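Appendix B. Raw example, untouched.
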Amino acid sequence: MLAALEELKRAKIPFWFEGVSALDQYYKVPNRPFFYVLVDGSLVDLAKVLPGIRFPGREHIDAEFEQSDEAVVYFRCKETQGSRWTPNTLFSPLYDPIQGKYLDPLGVYGSLRKKSVDRSEMDTLLGYEAALLIARYGFQIEPPKDELPREFTPLDVATQRDLLTLVLTGKHTATGLQFLFETGYFHRYWPELGVLKDVSHSKEYHPEGDVWDHTTETFTYRKNPDLAISLALLLHDVGKPHAQTWEGRKFDKHAEIGTRIASQFLHRLGFADPLVTKVLFLVRNHMMPGALKTLPIYRVEKVLDSVWFPELLEVYRCDLSSTFRGPGGYYEACKIYRAFLRNKKNPFRTVEGKKIQRIREPFVTQRGRS
């Protein structure tokens, strides 16, 4: 159990997982960047037991607590329940982590078990709520012909960041992203990505479709929903709409252009600086693994030496696989990387694998006079 929740337990303050966190528990979703917790207590009670707790002033969050290397905990006090947050009924279950029991006050267990949405539930389901059900739990929800009900006020930046994080760390990210795209969320909130649909690819190299289709296709080859890798996959081709054709290259310098756009996007949404730095490394260098066999090691040594290079290989694998060209280029890049690591550890070889010639000093003896 998270340290913050252990403190609540020790202070005998009742609490439950709610919303996404209760559903994550029910569906056994492993990757949980946030915990949404309903507390039977006041803000004063929370402040007493959790030094360093913050009060962000967000519409549906009373307080938040973040401890190093642990997920963020979002608290909502029970006294505010119903006054500031009215989610769809499918998000109404609660989970008591101490007793190990679920509470279903509105009787939605049948819909959750079937992963289906009744008409009455659909009438009040917001677009981003549907995207969460799709991306994290595998619900089958078709984008409606008529636009889903909009939130009463536009999503604030922090909520946009949390929504994107939850969709990207779900098991069914591609379908969740597609739902958000088709219901207008990308054009409304993330126009940098909304324009990807307008950029065509050469069918010879990208039979999967346009830049947006290619981007979503990469997620189907992802091994685990790591947030940094997922953000890099989402943003790796964001520079293509702004790139020019040069000497036969249709999207010349799109990685460099995309890095600048990705930086603005990630900082606007308020992602943490260490995460941003890592994602930008992956976006900037996402084409390098495919070019390793043609580049001298001294030109790419700094990138190869990065602790993030294994993640870069994973981004490249997903990128390459989405074009249906097979994993041959990925295996070649892995072979070069392993050779680099092996040579780097060998004191008798350069990082290129060449033998180091060591010149021995001649042994000189001095004779004394007789």
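End of appendix B.
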